[in-house]
Amino acid sequence: MGGMATDFTPTRVLVTGGGGFLGRHVARRLDSVGHELIAPARAEYDLIDRSAVVAMLGKARPDVVVHLAAVVGGIGANRRRPGRFFHDNLVMGVNIIEEARRAGVAKLVLVGTICSYPKFTPVPFREEEFWNGYPEETNAPYGIAKKALLVMAQAYRSEYGLDAAYLLPVNLYGPGDDFDLSTSHVIPALIRKCVEAAEAGEEVVPVWGTGKATREFLYVEDAARAIRCAVERPSPEGPVNIGAGFEIPIRELAAIIAEESGFSGELRFDPTKPDGQPRRCLDTTRAREHYGWEATTPLREGLRTTIDWYRTVRA
Q1: 177 and 221 in contact (C-beta within 8 Å)?
Q2: pLDDT score at 184
Q3: Bridge partners, residue 207, by sequence
Q4: Which candidate in 45, 117, 142, 166 is catalytic?
Q5: Sign of CA dihedral 73, 74, 79, 80
Q6: Handedness of CA 133, 137, 143, 147 (dihedral sign)
């Protein structure tokens, strides 16, 4: 199953956040199969400003809106800016959903976050567990803001008939990721540290946390395929998990990245730094049933491609 939809009619698709990491991959994929793509630059429209959203939709006149624009970051960024992460993500989403309804947009694809799941969700995470507890504390403001948008989408489906898909991707990685150590997630942070340490002949790379927490990682092109499916196929009510179907301890992930980066020194874990949620791994049955989608990129292959891309960009 590659998740490639068939028998669809090309449509006008507006992608918010089209210049971001995931957005660039989504935009290329939708454009390559014949959709008429609109991906405004971030500077053109401030999505926190309701009037800017009205102007954007009025000019673009899209059939479908894919809402990817978000304020995101790793554990450190979430701890430093919980207020901004809550406010900006909530307000952008509220403005997009309301104005899409008012503009008569035929379909809305919202991308949530795995951080919305309760801290101690049984593994593998199933959509039925989505409301059974509070998110992990360091990510809670961001997770709850995105979670509220699912409630709004469901309410608008009930009252106004708005067709809204809501996808829950796991941690993404791949070419074009954010490698700024002040805001990056674990994979790009480790890649940058290991590549630079290997080049400089350093003997130690610091790693946040104990290394015991597990995560699931999805190659960005697999996520872009899932979003294409959501654009082209009927959407179920409620969230749909988008994941790779496996979990890996951070300690093991770091060892693979070090090996692929050519770093042979010590990975020194810092238990004074937070691990975040103890475990993350999704049940993706719903994505297969509704969209015919599943991930196809092996982790080591995706990491190798990402490391090669980062080296090229640095050079």
Answers
A1: no
A2: 85
A3: 269
A4: 142
A5: negative
A6: positive
Nearest to 77 by CA among 174, 180, 170: 180
Question: Per residue in 227-284, pLDDT tens?
Answer: 999 999 998 999 999 999 899 999 999 999 999 999 999 999 999 998 887 888 999 9
Question: 184, 257 in Cβ contact below 8 A?
Answer: no
Structure tokens at 129: 């567990």
| CB-count exposure of residue 313 (10 Å: 0-12, 13-18, 19+) | exposed
The tokens describing 47, both together, are 């999505």
Cα–Cα dist 62/36, whole Å: 9
Rounded to two decimals, what is the model's pTM?
0.91
Is 117 annotated in the active site? no
Tokens of 206: 């610091």
Q: 169 pairs with which residues across the strands?
A: 242
Residue 150 and residue 109 in contact, taking contact as beta carbons nearer than 8 Å: no
> Hey, what domains does the chain have and what are their CATH numbers?
12-314 (3.40.50.720)
